[in-house]
Amino acid sequence: MRTKGKITTWDDSKGYGFITPLQGGERVFIHISAFANRNRRPQTNEIVTYQLSQDNKGRVCATKARLAGDSLPKRSQSKTNHIRVTVAIIAFGFVALSFLAGKIPLSILTLYVITSLITFLIYCKDKSAAKNKAWRTSEQSLHFLSLLGGWPGALIAQEKLRHKTNKKAFKAIFWITVFINSIAYIVFLNKDIVLPYIQSIL
Predict the structure, then answer these.
(1) pLDDT tens-place string over residues 36-50
(2) What domains does the chain contain, in order, with CATH numbers?
(3) How far are the Cα atoms of 44, 53, 54, 57, 128 from residue 60, in angstroms, in the given order?
(4) How far is CA 116 from CA 8, 31, 90, in A?
(5) Where exactly are the transmembrane stretches of this chain (predicted)?
């Protein structure tokens, strides 16, 4: 049975808020993951329909929520977009080929693999923490890991977990870290050319 209510409290940075049922009663907790439409961010005072459920601690929460004006999800919209995973695989492949060609040492290849694995696991932990209202990993930490070379792992986590894929500010900074890391990698590959050029300028 679906219930109608109004979002009376919403913290977009944390991805959760509370709904007050229109027919009266206690407020209901709702997390961003409960919304069917992930492309639209909830706002305070918006009307929402939802079903009641319980989290893993037995607390009442909302699920299968739809904001007013949202259409029913289509099957075609539920198909997974594999672009992020494809980019991550290409990145790993390029780094591996660079190592096999003797362009980079084993330590660089290991750095990308281990940092990506750690980043993926931290995304998993943060996703779980978001659902259970536990201590979250800061976005600065996630961006730092991406900057170190963990961005392929972050891309896979974003795709598989559907985590951190809707916040425009986060995505913008994330892709900046990818760009900076990629430029640094390209410079390292061409250090025999770049370094003498920089020294000649200085």
Answers:
(1) 777 788 889 999 999
(2) 2-67 (2.40.50.140), 80-201 (no CATH)
(3) 20, 6, 5, 9, 17
(4) 39, 27, 14
(5) 83-100, 106-124, 169-188
